[in-house]
Specification:
The protein is α/β, with parallel strands linked by helices. It has 8 helices and 15 strands. A hairpin with a 5-residue loop joins strand 2 and strand 3. The protein is globular, with a radius of gyration of 25 Å. Bound molecules: phosphoribosyl ATP and zinc ion. The site of phosphoribosyl ATP has 21 residues, from helix 3, strand 9 and helix 5.
Length: 297
């Protein structure tokens, strides 16, 4: 197979997104022999090459087509290439991937008072996201000094080099343990699959389409469940109303039981204990809730 025709996908080599990226690819049926000493690995059955790199390099690689597609946090993407999610620039987001959730937020010492964004006027804000922060402050007419630091941003106020910080927050535990509290959120982020706007070669486009269809199949299945239960015939309507996101259930007779039927259905949402308790109250029995691996429509 000609190497130049292979579709190249850049993912983070080692960090918070690496394992989830590899897991997504494995579930999409794309298998690699990962070797940490190699920059590029070839997929076993597809014309797909994987580049393992630092996340900060991924937006530029896709923009310059060092790799044709990449998976990266929206926070890194927009810091490097501007407002891509609003259609700016040469790179576009193909899919949001529902992992790597975090938010880029402003935070201040718990002891400082906060009265809206203008509280940052004339202040020093430490961040590793100077471009995103600058855009946000300019858009909102706030004049502040940005102190760019690459790591341990959360200690900046306590060592006296900034009055506030702008950093990624997930659980909030890091802010809390450094005596800080979140104020304004600049960006809600998650991992995204990106590509250049320009058309790729036919072979690359076809492979990308296949990959995206597989990811869609996995995403649809993510919260869906397959529910099987037995119910009194006269409760079919009530029960189908109780199951969330249920579409066109299959209703089947039960052997040696004229009064009850079996109901099977795909639910497009998770089925919580409260729902199961209501189903029982409505007369359902032998309730099975099964995970779904893939949904192809
Ligand atoms: O080496 P390389 O450059 O590839 O990796 P990196 O060290 O730059 O990035 P890495 O692996 O730390 O994060 C990769 C991506 O994961 C980020 O760009 C985000 O898109 C996403 N992500 C999700 C996070 C977090 N959650 C997160 N909580 N990235 C960083 N954090 C840090 C945050 O900076 C802060 O220090 O975790 C701390 C806050 O967490 P909480 O839970 O205490 O709030
Ligand atoms: Zn990085």
């Amino acid at each position: 197979m000609n190497n130049d025709q292979n579709l190249r996908l850049a993912i983070q080599k080692s960090g918070r997104l690496s394992e989830k990226c590899r897991d997504l690819l494995a579930r999409a049926g794309i298998n690699f022999d990962f070797r940490s000493d190699r920059l590029i690995s070839r997929a076993r059955e597809q014309a797909l090459d994987l580049m393992l790199v630092r996340d900060d390099d991924i937006p530029g690689f896709v923009k310059n087509e060092v790799s044709q597609i990449g998976i990266v946090g929206l926070n890194v993407l927009e810091e490097k290439l501007g407002r891509v999610s609003e259609g700016e620039g040469d790179v576009e987001i193909i899919r949001r991937l529902n992992f790597g959730y975090c938010r880029l937020a402003l935070a201040i010492p718990k002891t400082s008072s906060f009265d809206g964004l203008m509280s940052f006027q004339g202040k020093r804000i430490a961040t590793s996201y100077p471009n995103t922060l600058r855009r946000y402050l300019d858009d909102n007419g706030v004049k502040a000094t940005i102190v760019e630091i690459t790591g341990s941003v959360e200690v900046a106020p306590s060592i006296g080099i900034a009055d506030a910080i702008c950093d990624l927050v997930s659980t909030g535990a890091t802010l809390d343990s450094n005596g800080l509290r979140q104020t304004t959120v600049l960006l809600e982020s998650e991992a995204v699959l990106i590509r250049p706007r320009r058309r790729l070669s036919d072979a690359q486009e076809q492979l990308l389409e296949k990959l995206v269809a597989r990811i869609d199949g996995l995403q649809k299945a993510r919260n869906s469940k397959y529910v099987m239960l037995n119910a009194p015939k006269d409760a079919i309507y009530r029960i189908s109303q109780l199951i969330p996101g249920m579409e066109k259930p299959t209703v089947m007779p039960l052997m040696c039981d004229e009064s009850r039927v079996a109901i099977h259905a795909v639910c497009k949402e998770d089925v919580f204990w409260e729902t199961i308790e209501k189903l029982k109250e409505a007369g359902a029995s032998s309730i099975l809730v099964l995970p779904i691996e893939k949904i192809i429509e």
